[in-house]
Every structure is written in structure tokens, then in C-alpha cells.
Design a protein that fits this description.
Blueprint lengths: L7 H6 L7 E4 L3 E5 L7 E7 L14 H17 L6 E4 L15 E5 L8
Antiparallel strand pairs: 1-2, 2-3, 3-5, 4-5
The protein binds guanosine-5'-monophosphate (5GP) and zinc ion.
Guanosine-5'-monophosphate (5GP) binds next to strand 2.
Amino acid sequence: MSHDPNCIFCRIVAGQIPSRKAYDDEELLAFHDIAPWAPVHVLIVPKQHITTLYDVTDAHAALLGRMLALAPKLMLELGVVNGFRTLINTGPDGRQEVQHLHMHVMGGPRPWARG
Ligand code: 5GP
Ligand code: ZN
């Protein structure tokens, strides 16, 4: 599995940086965002290093599908029953700050800090 030692999310996946985990399997990790926009704000990341959505190919289709399918399950587990937002930022104009593909999943009662 590709791992970039300079990538903060690869380091979280490797357990080198602590995180509050919400889900873990062979391919995916979900953890709580350090600066949440909403009462519940998790990031779902592939464990392999994929920089952005621009780097995705058809070979990643199942992985992306699993990321999306995990979101509602995770939200229900975390008590989010009234809806949530999913967001993937890509590249500079998409305001992607961390260069490891991740999906924001945000939910919980309004008002939110952002979003
Ligand atoms: P982006 O702008 O790249 O879509 O979002 C990156 C997200 O990662 C931000 O919401 C930011 O708060 C979160 N983040 C950055 N560094 C860390 C970290 O070390 N731990 C956790 N849990 N979240 C982080
Ligand atoms: Zn990475």
C-alpha cells in the first residue's frame, strides 16, 4: 500500500500521529476532524496514499463507493439522524489543504460553526 512519510494523513493511518478514530478496516479509516465545522465532523480516508480526486482511476471505483457507503452508516452510529453533508475538496481552487484524498462528513444539530 502506498504510503507517503511526509503526508499527515498517511501518518495518522500509520498511527504515528494520534487521532480520534470513528471507523477502521483494511482499506478505510475514519477519524474526527481536529477543527470541526459541525457537532459531528469526520474525515473518511483511503489508507493508501491517493493525493486528490484527479489521481483517481476506474480501478478506484469500488474504494470510492465504499467511502460514500460508509458515510450514512457512520453518521447513524454517531447519532446523526437528521441529515449530513459530504464534501471532497480538490486542488488549490477547491481549497484542499491536506494532499491525501479525504471526504468530510458533517452532521448534527444546527447551528454549525461553518458550512
Ligand atoms: P481540506 O481543506 O484539505 O479538505 O481539509 C483538511 C481537514 O483536515 C481540515 O478540516 C482540518 O481541520 C483537518 N486536519 C488537518 N490536520 C489534521 C490532524 O492532524 N488531525 C485531524 N484529526 N484533522 C486534521
Ligand atoms: Zn497520504
